[in-house]
Fold each of these.
Amino acid sequence: MIRNMTPEHPNIPILQHAFEKHQTCFLLPTYNNASSIVHVIHQCLEQTANVLVVNDGSTDDTLLKIEQLPIKLLTYPKNRGKGYALRQGFKRALELGYRHVITIDTDGQHYAEDAIHFFEVLEKNPDALLIGSRNLNQENVPGKSSFGNRFSNFWFKVETGKTMPDTQSGYRLYPVHLYQDKKWFTNKYEFEIEVIVRSSWMGIDVLPVPIRVFYPKQEERISHFRPFKDFSRISVLNTVLVLIAFFYIKPRDLVLRPLREKGFKRGLKELLFDPHETIFTRAASVGFGVFMGIVPVWGFQLLIGIPAAVALKLNKTLFIVAANISIFPPIIWAASLATGKLLFGNPQWRIDFKNLKWEEVLQTGKEFFIGGTVLSILAGLICFAITYFILSISTRKAKP
């Protein structure tokens, strides 16, 4: 029986206090779920009056069935995808004053009353992203769901270094107040992967919450997941996330985050004046980092440089800090090309793209790569010499 929310029947839903305490609402993105959406909304209303539904351009009678229900409704005419619906729901929830949303699928596989388990975990982890952990060994679980979940769990661990039992569950609690200025770049099913990976990169704890799940028989199941298209997009997204993780996130966490925690000035001072390393090693680490940050092997600087720094027994932290000179690519590219043109005695910078000849392309490429290589060697040697000189002077002054 649904509790009537009108002033004449002021019955309080079961979990209303928890939803109010944590400034939370149910968020239900839906697309063509007319056969199940009303039942799911009624289940949610038994738990709280805080229900926000996003109608993602449904073409059946979903909108007709729900627009008179006591819910907050966001609707638009064209189907944009689950990720877009979630993103719009996040924005609307923030506008309504909520700090968290609990998302629940509208195909009827989740139990709204399991929201209590999210609040139990939220009490001890107030800014965490919580993901419902399903039992995928039960009856009627489709084989592709089990495989897809293992696939997703594997890549989540590669991209974040953390283990999760169920990264594909749609039953989640999002700390949307931490996403107010966040820019996302996916709109379909793959958003649910992007959001948990990038949340982890933000330092948000991603934690599992045990939940129940109902899977109807195959012939009764409703799914808008398109295996080839959606799996292809997910694969592309994982490729991008892995590259970002290995070329930016992991080096950042290894070096820059500890430096920020200590204070960049103090942390860098401890590195530069580490008594367990020689001045030559520290200066060489800086020089090699600058060299790798400039040398024209873009996209592979750290992949090549970190193993090389380990093999040469250099200071990996100083190397990565110095290699961050690569965060100014337009300046480095221009300087590399200028160096190459100077070496080849070619003062011509203007490129006529309409009449561009293959010989000119090869010549410009040669100038860029040779110029960048020479520039990286010179810059590395100069930085090595400057660092060695400064550390030598500072060490002498520090001696009694």
Note: The chain has two domains: 16-246, 263-398.
Amino acid sequence: MPRPISATISLSSLRHNLENVAQRLAFGGAASAQQPPRIWAVIKANAYGHGIDNAVRAFAGADGLAMLDLNEAVRCREAGWDKPILLLEGFFEPADLDVLDDYRLTTTLHCQEQFDMLAAFRPRAPLDAFVKLNSGMNRLGFAPGAYRDAYEQARSAQQQGVLGRVGKMTHFARADDDAAVTRKQLDTFAEATRDLPGPVSVCNSAATLTPELWTSCEPGAEQWVRPGICLYGSSPFARQTPAQLGLRPAMTLAARLISVRNIGPGEAIGYGHRFASSQPMRIGVVSCGYADGYPRHAGTGTPITVAGVRTRTLGRVSMDMLVADLSPVPDAQVGAPVVLWGEGGPSVDEVAVAAGTIGYELLCAVAPRVQKITIE
């Protein structure tokens, strides 16, 4: 019998979350008399741990897919995806360009070295591209003062038949928590790209769910938003829960109790004895640990559900086990179901807050040894 832990991926929840985003965009477009943006569904990092094949199936209603890994992009094509695919970091060496050409991938252009590699390449058909601006995040992209020259290089490559459609893009650093910083980045983008033709892509999950951002960015232009984490049922905002945004958890990490015991006052639990009881307690050992991807730094009090009842973890998370407080569920026995996060349990964001991290990390970190189950 396999160890009792699994990560269940709900395709219907993935579809629901995409439809939620599309409806919000349609409403924002109607309110502003603008055409709603088109949607790149971001599926980087194995679709945030949910599986590339699952994402291709669930996000069939998206206008395109966006990711980083060339192999994942090829896998999408081989799975039957025939709409646009955007490589968010572009290509890394000249040999990659043959893959872009063979599989008709759209590239990001964010540095001069990429233009240098592109100069010697002759594709069978022009490649679509987005030229990226560093508007203040200081990761990838051309500086504002160098952006127009970079864009002119792209237009020159377009005239030579190397590039097809050329667009403009940037990435927001604080769309989830600081409107002033985001507005400054948007103003920087507007100034650097003024009068330059082509489609626009600026919005991540938080910005996509903030209509005033995309509706005020180059009105009338063809826009592409890039929602990521919200598609998987996690909130990009610290002060709004997934439920408040109408999102459903797409991954449920579940396990079972493999041991139940009573401890007395003053008895301690686990490595380091980080928790000691002040009174008699009933505790349960759960078949989940940090080797499964559960955060080791999640301390006592992290929410968990046992037999449908919300309770908390106790002490330090071990490699293969953690301990649950069974005080709220005194009748729980060995074999009782446990939800670490997802449907019927705490949200992944709640667990992340307790562990001092973000839901993105937890979803991406579920270990290969955890059985993955896909349901419609």
Note: The chain has a mean pLDDT of 95.
Amino acid sequence: MSIDHQAAPRAIVLLSGGLDSATTAAIARAEGYAWHGLSVDYGQRHRFELTAAARVAAALGAEEHAVLRIDLARFGGSALTADIPIPRDRDPAEMESGIPVTYVPARNTVLLALALAFAEARGAADIFIGVNAVDYSGYPDCRPEFVAAFSALANLATKAGVEGTSRFAVRAPLIEMTKAQIIRRGTELGVDYGLTHSCYDPAADGRSCGRCDACLLRLRGFAEAGLVDPLPYATALS
């Protein structure tokens, strides 16, 4: 769609490079926002997602794509940032029970704080994040209560919020959607999911493992949507 970049409202989109954040960016664009992408290199072992984020930003017409480096691996405490095995081959019941070792301590709080600073600097009131509370792995910072709480904090913690020049809102358009619904919506909006990356434990050449929680949720979503995942997998699943 064509956007009048001078008149359009600005938004920040947290862009991981996965299918959820790509769909979220497409929704922001469809709603008429001139959007700025923010990706964070936080020491994650699946750093292929940062290359995917750059591809998605270019394909979906980001005004700019900022990549920040912070070292959450220094803290550890997660299979995504430390030498802890990535869970594999878990069934849906296992994924829905408890918080997995792939949870990164306070990650979305940290990412949203960075996005809030970016938003205030760019004059953007809306921050889009692709969190989901239906088909997800039990992360506490993907819940509606967290999104609402951070929106309230954003307006207490900023000059723009205190002076009333901006009213910040954290937008989570996917939060009540299944993975299949997300994929269908993104497909309607022209998202090329071949540009994205979801795997927590990719092969050296970047191919998805097909066995971690992220891969299993993604593959199930494509199957339920009646579509074929365009990504190559190191392990083919039936």
Note: Strands lie at 10-14, 34-41, 64-69, 126-128, 169-171.
Amino acid sequence: MSEDDAKTAVCLLSGGLDSATTLAIARREGFRCVALSFDYGQRHRFELDAARRVAASLGACEHRVVRLDLSASGGFGHSALTDAIDVPKDRDEAEGIPVTYVPARNTIFLSVALACAEVVGAFDIFLGVNAIDYSGYPDCRPAFVEAFERLANLATAAAVEGRGTYRIHAPLIRMTKAEIIRAGLDLGVDYALTHSCYDPSPDGLACGRCDSCRLRLAGFAAAGATDPVAYGNSRD
């Protein structure tokens, strides 16, 4: 199938390890991918540069960056990823939902992705949520993905008029981080292009101690691979 004949999908792309792997999977499945990233007031804005690199590397046909201010200045906030709240370090995973949770973030992002999909004529949306090796966010669980898919097919003219049925693809949702990394390496994902850290240094070095870094490092170790991104010295 040529690129021109391929079905179009919208793929949420943060610039991190999971979303990069998800984009690679969508491309392997033959989709022509519109990569969609969000500038939402996140403090770790290095991920947007990473998303641009990943989109180009994996052959996205288009990369869109949508601005949505979810920080306190935009009237939302209450997350360590958007506001002046310390990012937890060396956290016990059993401690519950962390302050890095951004209220309703995936619901908001998927809603924008759904609107984008309807405009570009796509009925497939990919996102890299995971419910095995993750920080405990409620909007990364299978029940959420299934519920949003039902909503998508009730809330759009394209679905109601019978032009197609929306599918929300979450190919990583039941994979361990090691399995995700192995899958990505098999698909040729260059993880050196990605950025996962919630609290990078001013020059973009990963902290190695936030939830995201710890999950990433443990995943590479379990996969028997070396993480190619740079880590700075541990900080208090």
Note: Strands lie at 8-12, 32-39, 62-67, 124-126, 167-169.
